[in-house]
Design goal:
Elements lengths: L12 H8 L3 H9 L7 E2 L5 E2 L2 H15 L4 H11 L7 H34 L9 H8 L7
Antiparallel strand pairs: 1-2
Helix pairs in contact: 1-2, 1-3
Keywords: DNA-binding, Transcription, Transcription regulation
Protein name: HTH merR-type domain-containing protein
Organism: Magnetovibrio blakemorei
Amino acid sequence: MSPKKNTAKDFTIGHMAAASGCNVQTVRYYEQIGILPAADRTAGNQRLYDQNHVDRARFVRRSRELGFSLDQIRQLLKLSDDPDQPCDEVDAIVLAHLDAVDEKIARLKQFRKELSRMASDCAGGKVSQCRIISALATTQPNKRA
């Protein structure tokens, strides 16, 4: 990108990070992996972002908060860049993610049940006789999906 003058609508990386709710390292990372388009540069090689960068970074941050992977976010951003197309693909991505969230909730409920059972089995006393430690040491790990 060619150097440009700083204007009132431009954000330095620090201001862009603050406006988007991301930290500076995250902004650099998203730019490096192509989630954010490359920033313009000043004559002094300082990055300059515009409101579109801020909006896109907010989209990514919110999507990450909801548990979407970077690949899913990349797909969603690509789809959002073509707003006149039907949203079937967006729906499919969200529904697949919802299924994954439901599976995770089911696993967490099982974990909670198991931890609750372990805690109720605890008779107090010394660690050498602790049923929780014993259960953790002898339980076979679950296969991950």
